[in-house]
Description:
Blueprint: E1 32-38, H1 41-52, E2 59-62, H2 66-73, E3 80-85, H3 89-97
Antiparallel strand pairs: 1-3, 2-3
Amino acid sequence: MPKCPKCKTEYEEGAAVCPECGAALPGQQNKLALLTTVESETAFRIIEAKLAQYDIPALMKHKTFGDFMQVLSGTTMYGIDVYVPEPALSLAQSVINEDPG
Length: 101
């Protein structure tokens, strides 16, 4: 049985995330799921850093002409979509919604 690279817990073949720690498992072709939309690349980087603590990769995708506006003006008025692997979506949602207090 394969083991999670992060916590070394055994998992079933074909699993996408570790049942113990929630880390994305190697060798899985995961579909991406929309986690949230943010207003700036800085906001994306904050979410990306929080998710990295749980070994959840994040992908930034500008809406419509946002990538052009980012290059032209250094910002975008269209927003940035944040995507994560589909199996890690519920964990990612809880991570970004947790109260820092």
